[in-house]
Amino acid sequence: MSSAALRGSEGAWRLAWRRLRRDRVGLVSLALVVASLLLVAASAIGLLAGDWQREVAVGHAPPSLFGMADPAAPRTVKLSATRWDPQLLPTPVDIVDPLAESLRELGIETDPVRLRLLADTVPTPTAILDPIADDLQAARAEQAGSGTQAGAERFTSLALGADKWGRDVAAKTLKGAQTSILVGLAAALVATLIGTVLGALAGWFGGVVDDLANWFYSVFTSVPTILLVLAIAAVLGQRSLANVVVILGLTTWTGVFRLVRAEYLKHKTREYVRAADAIGASAWRRIAVHVFPNISHVVLVQFSLLAVSCIKSEVILSFLGFGVPVDGVSWGTMLTEAQNDLLIGKWWQLASATAAMSVFVTALSLLTDALRDALDPRLKGR
Predict the structure, then answer these.
(1) Which of 50, 101, 199, 375 is deepest in the core (most CB within 10 A)?
(2) How far is it, in rounded angstroms, from Cα 195 to Cα 200?
(3) Residue 123 belongs to what H/E stretch?
């Protein structure tokens, strides 16, 4: 075979990449998706937005990026326990020992350091440890680290503003992107695996296996998706990211199943499959090694479509209160908080979460369209 003929017989994936490179919209979408995933990875390992819960600014600090910061205002202010503006800063909390006064009246030492020194030198009946002293000390240390104690400095403005507690909206948006995107991708992977396995078995073996798989398909498609999601969420009970992945994975696999089953019904009678059977290839080898690579483009496109759908579904679940735990953040929880912010004219948290979600979901949708065109085997001349 000549070298020209070898160059002309490109593989399916190389040919798809050549088509994708000619699609400018697809390339821009690919760049945006890759950049977003890199930011998510940096957030997941703690390089970015690791301290998103830290209260670094005044409550509802305006976004300086849009020119809303007052140029005459100081860059930082100190929390003051005497002069306090509830519209500007959350009320500082002074953690006090509720037992301190009673213990002093009894002549019992309450300071943990002095108490331990006293206990080491002169063991007396007054050397009684305050039962909540260690907990209070830990609470004060945590408060000092979060900047909520009186005297802590807060920024009066941030690039994308702050929420009502003074947390950086930019860091929250990035951490919320990590939650929403990773949960969406994980749920899409679970749904794709379920749909692909069931579709392959039903399409290849037929008979009872096909009937049973189609029965499950009919059950899941006969119930409205939102009711099915809420029912599974109620059964699982506790709010966690794993539960969200399970909920979305169990309710979105039906589309993949239908397409994969149809592809296996079509391919199992092809000549290359019969040739593999003639040389002694087992049924499982023909399913996994011979047929699946020829329909992998269908599975990839379905995974991309499911990722878009699952990300939006996670946002909706978190918005309704069935998503991430209360100590977590996602685009959905940010939208929930933004409802109250809008009532007092603070729009930047809503704008940040909406813009981030719109950019990523749109880019992923356009990339899915580009992949579908690039992997279409009917477009051999393009």
Answers:
(1) 199
(2) 8
(3) none
Show the DSSP H helices in the chain as ranges: 3-8, 12-21, 24-44, 100-105, 112-121, 133-146, 169-205, 207-222, 225-236, 241-251, 254-267, 271-278, 283-285, 292-320, 331-343, 348-374
- The set of residues, in sequence order, having a beta carbon less than 8 Å from that of 73 and lying 6+ positions away, is 156, 157
Tell me, what DSSP letter sits at residue 82? S
* Rounded alpha-carbon distances, angstroms, from residue 302 to 296, 299, 380: 10, 5, 21
Residues pairing with 158 in the sheet: 63
Mean pLDDT of 242-264: 92
Domains of the chain: 11-49+168-374 (1.10.3720.10), 86-154 (no CATH)
* Structural element, H or E, at residue 109: none
Q: Which residue has the higher pLDDT, 323 or 214?
A: 214
CB 186 within 8 A of CB 245: yes
Mean pLDDT on 157-168 = 88
Cβ contact 168:61 at 8 Å: no
How many other β-carbons are positioned within 10 Å of the β-carbon of residue 46? 9
Residues 6+ apart with CB under 8 A from 59: 87, 88, 89, 90, 162, 163, 164, 165, 166
Q: From CA 304, how far away is CA 361, in angstroms rounded? A: 11
For residue 210, is pLDDT > 70? yes
Count of CB atoms situated within 10 Å of the CB of 87: 8
